[in-house]
Amino acid sequence: MSKPRVVTEFVGSTLRATFVCSGATVSPIYAALYDKSEALVSSVAATSSGDGHYYADLALPNSPQWMVNKWSGVINANTYVRFALVQVQAVEVD
Predict the structure, then answer these.
(1) How distant, in Å, are the alpha carbons of 33, 34, 64, 94 from that of 37?
(2) Rounded mean pLDDT for each run of 10 residues along the chain, 94 residues in total
(3) C-alpha distances in angstroms, 9 versus 49, 52, 83?
(4) Is 90 exposed, middle or buried (0-12, 13-18, 19+ CB in 10 A)?
(5) Are 38 and 32 in contact (CB under 8 A)?
(6) Are 76 and 24 in contact, with CB atoms under 8 Å apart?
(7) DSSP the chain
(8) What is the pTM of this model?
(9) What is the rounded (10 degree) CA torsion for 20, 21, 22, 28?
(10) 6-89: CATH homologous superfamily?
(11) CB-based contacts of 13: which residues, under 8 Å, 6+ apart?
């Protein structure tokens, strides 16, 4: 089994989530951000960069926590879902 994908960002910043599906058009496609209680925090339609590359900008909360980034899209009438863990860290300078 493969390790889960983990993205690390800082509190109050914007996560630019990316999705690559070369050779296929995904439509519709959206990215969502969920907190540890599985409550939806943010959801946006993704933007195509061309050639099967998509991105979505998601605002992160102002407190450290673990979150889940969920991508959902339709490829040739089939629903495709992908997850990533998002670690939102406090900004600290020692």
Answers:
(1) 11, 8, 14, 31
(2) 82 94 86 96 93 93 96 91 95 78
(3) 22, 24, 16
(4) exposed
(5) no
(6) yes
(7) -PPPPEEEEETT-EEEEEEE-TT----SEEEEEE-TT--EEEEEE-EEEETTEEEEEEEPPSS-EEEEEEEEEEETTEEEEEEEEEEEE-----
(8) 0.86
(9) -110
(10) Immunoglobulins (2.60.40.10)
(11) 60
pLDDT at 25: 83
Token pair for 29: 């496609």
Q: Are 31 and 81 in contact (CB under 8 A)?
A: no
